[in-house]
Amino acid sequence: MEELKKGGIFNISDLRNVRISIGEIVEEEEEWEPMGPHPMPGIATLRNWDFMLLNRYKPFYAPLCDMCCLCTYGKCDLTGNKKGACGIRMDAQHGRIVLLACLVGCSAHCGHGRHMLHEMIKKFGGDVPIDFGPEVDVEAPLTRLVCGIKPKTIRDYEKVFDYIEEQIVQLADALHTGQEGSYRDFESKALHMGMLDSLGKEAADIIQIASYGMPTSYEGGGPDVPLVDVGIGTIDTTKPVVLVIGHNVPPAADIGDYLTENGLEDRVELAGICCTSIDTTRVYKKAKIAAALGRQLRVIRMGIADVVVVDEQCIRADILELCQRVHSPLIVTNDKAMHGLVDRTDDNPDKIVDDLVSGRAPGVVILDPEQVGEVAVKTVIQMDKKRKGLKLILSDEEFKYYVNDCIQCGNCTLACPNGLRIGEANQSATSGDIKPLAGLFDLCVGCGRCEQVCKKHIPIVDVITKAAYPQVKEEKGRMRIGRGPVWDSEIRDVGAPIVLGTIPGIIAPIGCGNYPNGTKDAWLIVKEFAERNYIVTLTGCMAIDAALWKDEEGKTVYEQHHGRFDAGGVLNIGSCVSNAHIHDAAIKVASIFAGRPLRGNYEEIADYILSRVGACGVAWGAMSQKAASIATGFNRLGIPAVVGPHGAKYRRAFLGRPDLKDDWKLIDATDGSEIYFEPGPQHLLVACETVEEALPMIAKLCFRPSDTDRGRSIKLTHYIDLSLKYLNAYPPDWHLFVRTATDLPIANKNELLKKLEDEHDWEIDWKMKRIKEGPIRGYDPSFNPTNLRRLIREKKK
Amino acid sequence: MGMEIPFDVANIPGPEMGEVAPPEVIGSYISSAKRPLLVVGSEILRDDFFLETAIEMGRKGVPIAATGHSIRGFVEKEYTENVSYYNLHELTNCLRDPGWKGLDGKGNYDFVIFFGVVYYYASQMLSCIKNFAIDPLIRAVSIDRYYHPQARMSFMNISPEMEEGYKDMLNRLVSSIK
């Protein structure tokens, strides 16, 4: 033992009563980059960065409920920022609720990712290489940035999920009564949760891309991914139809595999709703996208599906009841959403099929994706024959009866999230004009609350569907399948124009379908910015909804625009988890284009993005807790987001105040001097009432202090032009973004100089066409903006 | 005065819910306010009457914050005297700050009237004012065709067939502003 203590050589066979345990075997890691200051940050590690953000973009709370009901002291009335029995104030309580929402959202993404990892290791083994082809060297920017890990195989994600899961538990702990009491600290924790959410999404998508061979930068990937059919009208209901719903693709992938292996690809339709549909098109060529989340209730009620297969997230809680109503057997495939059904995973597949087809079992749980493939396909073939005679769209007589039965009580309107005037539309239909009712189809968010309160028990959803049926049958769009990562080579091409501002911004429409005014807004946002040479990167339901509308030539935005990550591109990045690649694109601009160190260096990269990368998320129909954590993850990385009016119900925004001068100070890293700067970006999270208001707001949130005068001129052109086009007025704050006369749009430079002189009292040198006095700061091409004092360059002695 | 069902029926915030008030009462509060502000939203564009009502209030000296894309209507009517575009989130964020200088640089407001803002967005902003614009107190009211429990005072829910009655209420409100 003496030798052991000295660290000398010993002979194991000489040892008695000694237990040797071998922990994790750490292989010598390839030296790919020195470790940065913050690998695997804990709750408090990036708090200073968060507080810098929170000082500039102060949390704004709009309570949805004035009470706290979380412990037995309560209910506590917190109205007027009062304290509850535990001492928590309304503002802190709402920080707490925001953290809770982010916890739920982050857990959904990370639970999905961990589940995916287990499934893929079981199916393919842990050594599946992470190789995204010749154009993608930086394969996992968030993983490298947050964890300091360069993953080589999917097994490497075990460590990543270990880290995330520990952080989630610690953050959840902070929610308990008698823990955190400061709203700012709750928000710092929510930002931490948002960062974990983005990391979890990246992990989930990388694992599935690597395992299933989804598109990357190998041939046919990236900008060259194929187009796929989108829309209820594209589903061939003369064939048996399997409808997959949710976010976790293995069961759907195995249905595709079973169809392929059995030569049934042309005999059976595999269609989907929500993100599972997007991911199914990444693994099975014949898959179709029936609809986004907002149409879920209606697609099922229309009876399109002969079998419904659900996995996880955004599935209706009443899915079993809905399926029973239209005689579609339900197969649930994930232990997080089992809907009270019997687990038949270990049963004989043919016996399960028999029970489903006969109706003895309305649905089953099958947790083995391969078995789902077999059962779903065998069932759908039999169910198709059985369901052939069903008439699930109302007859003309039924339609007439119901619209005449409406007593205009208005209960449906009070129950409708969008306050739709359904009774009024019914009344028009009684006199033969069904257009108002048909028009409600797209405006409806598909919740079904109206039917529950109808005194006459009118199946309102079916009535609206009947009125809109001719247009619904023609709902046929095209979109690119999810392309996954943005290529390093694309970043090299566009890094400079993005940072300099000559590509005016990256616009990221993402998320759910809780739109204030229908899906057409999604299309308009994409169209407007793609035509103005922004880069538009979509994911999730908004990517689907944008594909439902066409221009005068009958082309969707995906057909009208190229799919490169370049000016004017319209990219479907993929499902919800894929939107981590949008974070990744911004990170790659900092690391690949600007050469900033990536490994374990979150704060510096976020600082770079906030000051230089003109990106803006748009969650126009944000609904879920996932959308809350997604936006919060964007925000911590320095990317602002605009939400629709329903987004105000998230209760919290991050809003900047241009009138508070001291909130807008940056450091010039070149010499350490402090500079007052224009409010770019002005907010981190803001809601707009209408799409007309959102369009200029999105353009505004793309201003960055690093813009060159040419870039600023382009951004100002779009900001002013969108405002004139949609608000019929100059934006009241456009002058704040002018630093020098060369920032002004060339086409109307004189007019704008005159406005600066007349309306804002700026001093203009008309002879030289120069601004003498007025701007917050002048334009300095050498300005090296940072919020971090540690990045000030040491002066050469 | 009396209680009413929220327009979004589940929107029951807590112990403090706004009262239903007749137009003349709201009008008298506007008249006695030191610094009233009319906040209009995109729904005023659905009928010229509502835009004209807002302009009439503006002419009576109530400054207007035009949120959403409602500014379009004022520009088209060539009424720009005391109207400013503001995003509603931005505006409410300023309202909760006693130190805010206001649209005219003369300070914050003490009485805010919501008119024509999408219901649920307005409700959230009224909630912020109710809960956080408390010292000094800002009273926020709604003159929409919805009952807004987050407002201090509100009209009741008004069905489409009562549209003319609603317009009459707005006329009475404007007339009662001195």
Defining key terms:
heterodimer, A: 797 residues, Helicase, Ruva Protein, domain 3, 8-stranded mixed sheet, globular, B: 178 residues, alpha/beta, Rossmann fold, 7-stranded parallel sheet, 7 strands, 36% helix, 13% strand
What can you tell me about this protein's structure?
The complex is a heterodimer of chains A (797) and B (178). Chain A is built from 28 helices and 23 strands. In chain A, the strands form 6 sheets. In chain A, strands 1-17-20-16-15-12-13-14 form an 8-stranded mixed β-sheet, sandwiched between helices. The N and C termini of chain A lie far apart (56 Å). The mean pLDDT of chain A is 96. Helix content of chain B is 36%, strand content 13%. Chain B has one domain (19-176): TPP-binding domain (Rossmann fold, 3-Layer(aba) Sandwich). The model of chain B has no long low-confidence stretch (mean pLDDT 96). Chain B has a 7-stranded parallel β-sheet with strand order 1-7-6-5-2-3-4, sandwiched between helices. With 178 residues, chain B is α/β, with parallel strands linked by helices.
The largest sheet of chain A, given as strand count, sense and whether it forms a barrel, is: 8 strands, mixed
Contiguous uncertain segments of 5+ residues of chain B: none
CATH class descriptor of the domain at 47-212 in chain A: Mainly Alpha
- CATH fold node name of the domain at 47-212 in chain A: Helicase, Ruva Protein, domain 3
Percent helix among the residues of chain B?
25-40%
Query: Taking Cα atoms only, what radius of gyration of chain A do you get, to the nearest Å?
Result: 28 Å
Shape of chain A: globular
CATH class of chain B, named Alpha Beta
CATH homologous superfamily assignment of chain B: TPP-binding domain
Give the averaged pLDDT of chain A, no decimals.
Answer: 96
Low-pLDDT residue spans of chain A: none
CATH architecture of chain B: 3-Layer(aba) Sandwich
What is the ordering of alpha helices and beta strands of chain B? Answer: EHEHEHEHEHEEH
Largest interface: A-B, 51 and 50 residues
Could you give me the name of the CATH homologous superfamily of the domain at 47-212 in chain A?
Carbon monoxide dehydrogenase alpha subunit. Chain M, domain 1
Count of helix runs of chain B: 6
Percent strand of chain A: 5-15%
Write down how many β-strands of chain B occur, each being a DSSP E stretch of 2 or more residues.
Answer: 7
Instruction: Specify the biggest β-sheet of chain B.
Output: 7 strands, parallel
Q: How many helices of chain A does DSSP assign? A: 28
Count of spatially separate domains of chain B = 1
